[in-house]
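Order emerges. One example.
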Amino acid sequence: MMGGMSEKDHESGRMEKDQENQEHTRHITPRVWGMALVAVVIVVAVIAVLYSRSGMIQPEAAEIKTGSVSRQSVAGDIKITGVLDTQDRAVVTPQIAGTLAELYVKEGAQVNKGDIVAVLDQRDLQIALDKAQSAAQSTQSTTEQARINYDSAQADYLRYQELFQTGAISRQQLDQAQAKRDLARSQYVAAGGAGADTAEQGVAAARSNLEKAALISPMDGVVVACGVVVGDNVSPSTSVVTIVSAENLVLSGNVPEGVINYLQVGDQAAVELDTQKGVSYAGAITFISPVSIPTGQFFPIKITMQEASEQLKAGMTVTAMIHIATSGYVAVPNSALFKREGRNFVYMVQDGKAVRTDVDISLQGDEYTAIMRGVTPGDVIVLAGTDQVIEGMEIPLEK
């Protein structure tokens, strides 16, 4: 028929339509499958979260175990953090006032004990010594002349005695000779006594001041500070040079009262630099204060380094580990302890119920922690599973 389509034409149209649909499907199928896969993952994740929050999915709870507190052997490390400082330090100051004429060292210089590090202006000091020596020489001359006069007067007196005994001279002449002898003796004693002593003391003082013009290092070490420059006026209160020893470095730190009694002078320590982890240096406790710091609860301690190293310098922050092994202390397993607001607790079992109990701990080991206060041997506590326990809940005791 002219106005209609034949069956053959319909069939041909359907085939063309199917081909178009197949071509379209071939292009969009990967994208559709990708989107579908993402949607499935999101749905599964949402369902998992909802189940978890609703309590339908829970991790397996740790088993609650109970037992009695006992005495145990505890081994652990005590950690002490502090700052290295020099054990030997000297500040060189003048013994007399003056003007700095020479400074022979600078910061970083190595010095030995006895080295001259600076010198004061010696001109006035030398003048003072010269005057004192001149005065002493004058006094010495006066004393010598007084001695000669006395020896002469004494000889005259002895000769006059002999003449008087023979009647050659009168009594008055003998008395005059004696008076002359006595006056010469008193003058000699005066010249050779206080006057001579004063003169010698003046020379000694002037010489000592001249010697004090040289400022001497009292120790071997390194100059770490020079507080003046040439030309400065200085006095005994002036710090001219500061010297420290590169050896005998000391760690100064504080130890909590809970562990102080575990430590003894001589205990060995492994010291690490905060900037050099994994490398330790040997040290030993050389001082434990019998008195706590003003705020209490901590005791000063000193650890002296036993080996020198260029890596160790005064002022560095270091950490010392001291291994301690003890026995016979009241202790609980580490699993029995838990913290609340910075405090340590255990659950004690009283009348079949959990009672949160505050405890003070000391040495912490790998398995056990020593207890100072809070529990005693024989007390029943929760040994494990504390995260499953709440205050007041019934706790079945293990048989």
User: Anything to note?
Assistant: Residues 7-53 form the longest helix (47 residues). The chain is about 35% helix and 35% strand. Residues 1-6, 43-61 have pLDDT under 50 and may be disordered.
